[in-house]
Amino acid sequence: MRKVVSPRPSGHSPAHLLTSLADLLRTWLPEQRWFAGKGRRVTDLSLLSVTELHPGCLHLLVSTGDGSTARPGDCYQLLLGVGDVLPPRLAHARIGRASEGPLAGLTVYDALQEPRSADLLLERLRTPGTAGPLRFERDAKVAVPAGLAPRLLDAEQSNSSLVYGNAYILKIFRRVRCGINPDLEVPWALARQGCTRVPAPVAWFRTSQPQPATLGVLQPFLPAAVDGWTLALDSLTAGREFTDEAYELGRATAEVHLALAAAFALGAPTGHGSRRLAAAMIERLDATSRSVPELMPYVDGLRGAFDALAVLDSGRPVQRIHGDLHLGQVLRAGERWFVIDFEGEPARPIAERRQPQSPVRDVAGMLRSFDYAARSRHPWRPEWARRCRDAYCAGYAAQARWDPRAESELLRAYETDRAVYEALYEARHRPDWLPVPMAAIARLAEHAPTPTPSGSPHTPVPSFHSAQGG
Q1: Same domain for 266 and 349
Q2: Cys-Cys link to 117, which of 10, 111, 221, 367 (CB 3.0-4.6 A)?
Q3: What is the mean pLDDT of the chain?
Q4: What's the pLDDT tens digit per position in 177-224?
């Protein structure tokens, strides 16, 4: 397959190159799982950065938009291969054949699915340096071996990941935001604290143009690990309890939170910003209820959770947290839990994701995940979710020396906010799943009793929610 040289050395501007790529990308981008603009046409397209990583492989930062002035455009990271003929083994990576511009007559494909390009990307990370605006860096204390066979994972949603020799995993951020990505910043800081619950970054790359941003992070891969969601569903399918695992997961979560509190500056106690936090939650509720009519009967009841938060005067300081914690963000290898994916919710600005928040938000995310697992198997087992939730909180309390169930108003508000977010997501992307968050909405819209946490890690205790689960 004949390769082409970089458009920059051959005198072509990004705008000139776009004449070859625009039509192809407008069709291909909306079909990708990591593309955030589902259901919207790509009408505005521009190249922000073009860098040749090696002959025939171009690194692009692409700005997309749908012509709406109300919604700002997104920036995506692409690695494109260009050549005469695509071998049959790469047919699935084909984007299309350019019909005009500097690439006219050449085939364009997703280079992440080509082993040679994946190999050379790892070499860039092994030997720090620059390529145009791109800078490749690594931890000098870690030597990454050469020649590790790459494979592209097919289970990613908002990003793409390459596994090298079952030893390392490279997460490539598809949707690029300005600033240091928390998925580099947080694991690096935790590693400096000696926290072993989070795989430490060994190499990364970033860009300085058009604005500084993190593009990818290489970390140790845990080949024998299984994610918490899979383990929970296996437990439900087999009719087994999951309380021991949930208890240890609670301990692991608290251990990470304690390390985060030591690694980053703490913020003022939650009470100082309760009114502002509640107002933001109410705003999201009102906006979501306009998009999800099923939510309307419960709006007044859900507002009660946020009204209680507005007058809350908690003395616990806020801190850096995970930001999007659920069973899919944890791995179990042997008897040990690991926490991964500190990127937070990709739809939110990085500056917002880096803000100190209450650790109760992470706890609420995990409690919602137990409910999701219980709801995904028939017959529905709300008592399984209740026991997991209580065991998780008990494990957290044993490590943190405070029980999140004692923060009942804050926990209810965060869980309500999460359920509202889930309702919007499911209504847009998976309508058949909408009953899952709606069951929690119905429960959370009611007033909940004050919990009485137990000191026993495995004894079911009264929770802040009803026995109907979520």
Answers
A1: yes
A2: 111
A3: 89
A4: 999 999 999 999 999 999 999 999 999 999 998 899 999 999 999 999
Q: Are residues 412 and 338 in the same domain?
A: yes
Q: Is residue 42 part of a domain?
A: yes
Cα 225 from Cα 456, distance rounded (Å): 29
Would strands 74-83 and 57-65 be described as parallel, antiparallel, or unpaired?
antiparallel
Residue 308 sits in a domain whose CATH number is 3.90.1200.10
Domain span holding position 369: 226-444
Tokens 């300085």 belong to residue: 208
- CA–CA distance, 255 with 195 (Å, rounded to integer): 8
How confident is the model at residue 463, as a pLDDT? 30
- Measured in degrees and rounded to the nearest 5, phi and psi for residue 100 equal -150, 175
Distance CA 279, CA 296 (A): 18
293 and 161, same structural domain?
no
Chain centroid to Cα 382, Å, comes to 27
Question: Is there a single domain that holds both residue 338 and residue 367?
Answer: yes
Taking residue 405's Cβ as centre, other Cβ atoms within 10 Å add up to 25
Among 9-13, 28-32, 357-361, where is mean pLDDT lowest?
A: 9-13
Q: Are residues 420 and 333 in the same domain?
A: yes
The residue assigned the tokens 């949603």 is 157
91 pLDDT more than 60: yes
Residue 303 has pLDDT above 90, yes or no: yes
Does 292 lie in the same domain as 247?
A: yes
Per-residue pLDDT at 3: 47
Residue 402 lies in a domain: yes
Strand partners, 173: 159
Say yes or no to pLDDT of 231 above 60.
yes
Two structure tokens written together for 395 = 């494990």
